[in-house]
Design goal:
With 88 residues, the protein is an all-alpha fold. It is elongated.
């Protein structure tokens, strides 16, 4: 069975669909941070130093772990960016 077919079937379960949505949003945040960091030409260590946090924190966020808005804001500012939250 292809993964797309399996996911489509599972999405009929409201609990699965809700959890899928939450995890997808975390992944989008992780990818956005990774791309912004790479675009800025920074390593995880360099970004962590600028944001006054640890490399492990940056790595966890880039893996999709939960993060506070305050932490994301500090990281964005460390790259000379603003944090923008959008409800789509």
């Amino acid at each position: 069975m292809k993964i797309d077919v399996m996911i489509e079937k599972e999405m009929k379960d409201s609990e699965f669909a809700e959890l899928w949505g939450v995890e997808s949003e975390k992944l989008e945040t992780a990818i956005a941070l990774y791309k912004a960091r790479e675009e800025a030409g920074l390593t995880q260590v360099e970004l962590a130093e600028r944001a006054k946090t640890t490399q492990a924190t940056i790595a966890r966020i880039e893996r999709g772990d939960n993060v506070s808005f305050d932490k994301l804001s500090a990281i964005a500012h460390a790259m000379g960016k603003k944090l923008k939250i959008e409800f789509a």
